[in-house]
Amino acid sequence: MAPASQAEVGKMKPIWQTPPPGSKMPPLETFRLTKELVQERVKDNVIVATFGNYAFMDFILTWVKHLTDLGVENLLVGAMDTKLLEALYWKGVPVFDMGSHMSTIDVGWGSPTFHKMGREKVILIDSILPFGFELLMCDTDMVWLKNPLPYLARYHEADVLTSTDQVTPTVTDDRLDNWKEVGAAYNIGIFHWRPTDSAKKLAKEWKEMLLADDKIWDQNGFNDLVHKQLGPPVDDESGLAYAYDGTLKLGLLPASIFCSGHTYFVQAMYQQLRLEPYAVHTTFQYAGTEGKRHRLREAMVFYDPPEYYDSPGGFLTFRPSIPKSLLLDGEHNLETHFTLVNYQIKQIRTALAIASVLNRTLVMPPLWCRLDRLWFAHPGVLIGSMTRQPFICPLDHVFEVHTMLKALPVEEFGPGISIREYSFFNNPLMPVQVKDSWLDVQLCQEGSENCQSNITNTAGVLRFPKRSNEEMLKTAFSPFKDVKVIQFSSMQDAFLGFTDKAREEKFRNRVKRYVGIWCCVEKHDPGHIYYDMYWDEKPDWKPLPPQTREDDHPHW
Fold first, then answer.
1. Would you name any one GO CC term (predicted)?
2. Alpha-carbon distance values, 78 to 120, 127, 148 (Å)
């Protein structure tokens, strides 16, 4: 079939147009990957594709919505299980069957199922390229922020354009990264393939390599093949280089605007270089799928359903007060980093307790760090990177986001405490009726003038005594149970503790598990340091890595 003409493109079925009411699910074979099925979605000979299973449904819908909002409709989603296929079909999302019938549960990084997903990707590329279409292949844990197709079309000579894990800039504008200076792995979460002979040859060899050895990680296999030969440059201008077998023309998408989880969430490299980012991929993070979702929420680029923004019981938030000296004075080192983070941990611990007592969802504050977190030893920030100090660090740098969101047994850990990301109230999806239902709480010294827990002044401010206990909180705030948002002016000395000691014990049991590690000091094994939710109860607490193997465990 010839590439689709513009007239044919005009007939492309709009995305999000749901099947008519009362219609039946078409038979599964209708969704088989064929040239004709892909042809229906192609525009300018390009198809944009991702794939996943039902566990990633919300990521996939977010991915699709970003593209359709950008006017990109030449897309297809591969469904690895029938549950996802049917769900997407009824939502009007173009879908095809990957026939792998994987489990619908989340796939952990590095697990056998994760490796199977890696095989699916290369099989898919190897299947689509012979159809004669260009393929922009994406992981589901990335989102598009700007239409990438005009950018990719600039490099029409390229056989493959790939993203990378590069954390230091090699260019300061929107040109391709300098292949001679990129030392990091090429990341196959975002890459563009053209149906040329050398690209097809690479896809075929990569597929055969992975099917012959199920222990090879797909990305490592791709890197090994492409690096068989690297250079010379294709020309003086484009930034492309010959790679693989010496005929493949390869380009490296700039990490400043085709962002990794580091260049976007930690360095904000695109902001510093005054560039517009095209994409963000949630790599370089520490809390599994929940951590990825939370980072995208912090960046306000994840699409949640309306009920996420209007939680039963309402929300609790507070104004974090951090002394300037903790943020800016002295060197940026382990001591100053932990002093700063511990100061915030203590306030968040108090806020979690109050949220638990009032049965409200806690909106986390922005978290400031002086040092970066990685999974290997480093001097504090990566040399040559654009990480500013201090910086607002993702929640998963300090907190175990996956544990915070997990349903822990109530009899051992007390009631669950829901959380939201720090940017929650700035999100355009936040309903007006939630933002307008707001009570400010000002902490005051008990006994001082107007420090009563039962009167709101004309400005809608409640003055509330510091060092209150569980009963005082419940009594003071029960008249405000219909108020959507309660904001405390501070969490310093806001809560004296639980009156019910069994409840206190369960709460401590829960929140001790909420903090993770900082990683990693140089010249010490192990090099990580455990955060401690109750650091202030240990007068001699110091930020030190475990001194022996026996010491190497969290503080619970």
1. Golgi apparatus
2. 10, 12, 20
Per-residue pLDDT band at 454 (split at 50, 70, 90): low
DSSP 91: H
Structure confidence at residue 450 as a pLDDT band (50, 70, 90)? confident
Q: What is the DSSP letter of 80?
A: S
Q: Which of 308, 301, 300, 303 is nearest to 366 (CA)?
A: 300
Find the Cα–Cα–Cα–Cα dihedral 347, 350, 352, 357, rounded to 10°: -160
Domain annotation for the chain: domains and CATH numbers: 29-169+177-273 (3.90.550), 306-551 (3.40.50)
Separation CA 119–CA 188 (nearest Å): 12
Minimum mean pLDDT among 154-158, 163-167, 388-392, 552-556: which range?
Answer: 552-556
CA dihedral over 536, 537, 540, 543, signed as positive or negative: negative
Give the three-state DSSP class for 78.
strand
At residue 15's C-alpha, the angle toward residues 10 and 16, to 5°, is 145
How are strands ordered across the β-sheet holding 315-318? Answer: 419-420, 361-363, 315-318, 485-488, 438-444, 461-465
Unique residue bearing structure tokens 């005054």: 274
Q: What phi and psi, each to the nearest 5 degrees, are found at residue 385?
A: -80, 175
Residue 318 burial (CB count, 10 A): 25
* Cβ atoms of 513 and 400 closer than 8 Å: yes
pTM (global) more than 0.70: yes
pLDDT exceeds cutoff 60 at 103:
no
Smallest CA-to-CA distance from 345 within 296, 397, 391, 298 is with 397
Q: How many helices (H) and strands (E) does the chain have?
A: 18, 24
- Residue 442: HSE in the Cβ half-sphere, 13 Å Cα cutoff: 15
* pLDDT tens per residue, range 530-555: 999 999 999 999 999 999 989 999 98
Round the average pLDDT of the chain to a whole number and report it: 93
Beta bridge partners of 243: 230, 248
List the one residue out of 478, 183, 543 whose CA is nearest residue 336: 543
